[in-house]
Amino acid sequence: MASGERVWLITGCSTGFGRELTRQLLSRGQRVVATARNPAALDEFASHPGAVVALLDVIIPEQIKAAVALAEAQFGGIDVLVNNAGYGYLAALEEGEDEDVRAMFETNVFCLVNMTKAVLPGMRDRRSGHIVNISSMGGLIGFPGIGYYNATKFAVEGLSEALAKEVEPLGIRVTIIEPGPFRTDWAGRSLKTPSLPIDDYATTAVARRDAIRGYSGTQPGDPVRGAAAIIAAVESEKAPLHLLLGKPAYDLFSDKLRAFADELATWRDVTLSADFPAQE
């Protein structure tokens, strides 16, 4: 979607990428529907002529409908949806508590779907739009102690790739953002962990959780630069389907791609042997 005035609806604007995107977009003359579970947290935007602040807890369908209706009433439609709301629950597979795991899936996956479904009718009518789904490098690489969070983000990856193929003929683009570690609240107050850790995972899952907590506030990723990169991708004539953010994400995923390619080559003959023999 080329540069120009657009209407952005962003979920989860109280902190992190959502807040920084809102700041930068408004400074560029864009119009933004900034949403949060606590709209008072967005007071800095309330008086801006290009902003509308809206109550939105993405797990409440009525609030999704109301936020989309507000955007359409105030600005005539939504050009860019940024599905940013989400959080991490870090647990080894065995440590995972069903209620917490399901709650994370609800927010990270099903609420993202509901938000997307709410804006697609308008985008289809206009034959234009852009869906930006905030995933993670954890949507591309599995890590010990992060399996359930990985699963939500792997789901976002698959859904987004399929959606991109469904809506491209309708003039709608999809971009998946895959940040590495950034100085947002993800590893701080937003992070959830199991109430009953298992000692046998001390060197894997527990160690990973401790490391993530320990670097909160010192991660290499800069949300200001990350938000600028997201905006640049959306404004590009050839917006990417995937956009990794930060050197750790780039390096670790590059390593995975090389290892995956080596494994494919090593097991090629076994892979191909599973088909029926070619007919002569």
Structure description:
By secondary structure, the protein is of the alpha/beta class. The protein has a single domain, classed as 3-Layer(aba) Sandwich (Rossmann fold), CATH 3.40.50. The chain has 9 helices and 7 strands, in the order βαβαβαβαβαβααβαα. The radius of gyration is 20 Å and the shape is globular.
Defining key terms:
Rossmann fold, 9 helices, 280 residues, alpha/beta, 7 strands, 7-stranded parallel beta sheet
Largest beta-sheet details:
7 strands, parallel
Runs in which pLDDT lies below 50 for 5 or more consecutive residues are none
CATH homologous superfamily grouping: NAD(P)-binding Rossmann-like Domain
Question: Strand-and-helix sequence, N→C?
Answer: EHEHEHEHEHEHHEHH
Number of β-strand runs: 7
Q: How far apart are the termini? A: 50 Å
The level of helicity is: 40-55%
Average predicted local confidence, pLDDT: 94
Number of helical regions: 9
Question: Helix and strand layout, with pairings?
Answer:
Blueprint lengths: L6 E4 L5 H12 L3 E6 L6 H4 L4 E5 L5 H15 L4 E4 L14 H29 L2 E6 L12 H21 L4 E8 L25 H10 L8 H13 L6 E4 L1 H20 L1 H5 L8
Parallel strand pairs: 1-2, 1-4, 2-3, 4-5, 5-6, 6-7
Helix pairs in contact: 1-7, 3-4, 4-5
Short description:
The chain has helices at 16-27, 43-46, 61-75, 98-126, 147-167, 205-214, 223-235, 247-266, 268-272; strands at 7-10, 31-36, 51-55, 80-83, 129-134, 172-179, 242-245. It is α/β, with parallel strands linked by helices and 280 residues long. It has a seven-stranded parallel β-sheet with strand order 3-2-1-4-5-6-7, sandwiched between helices.
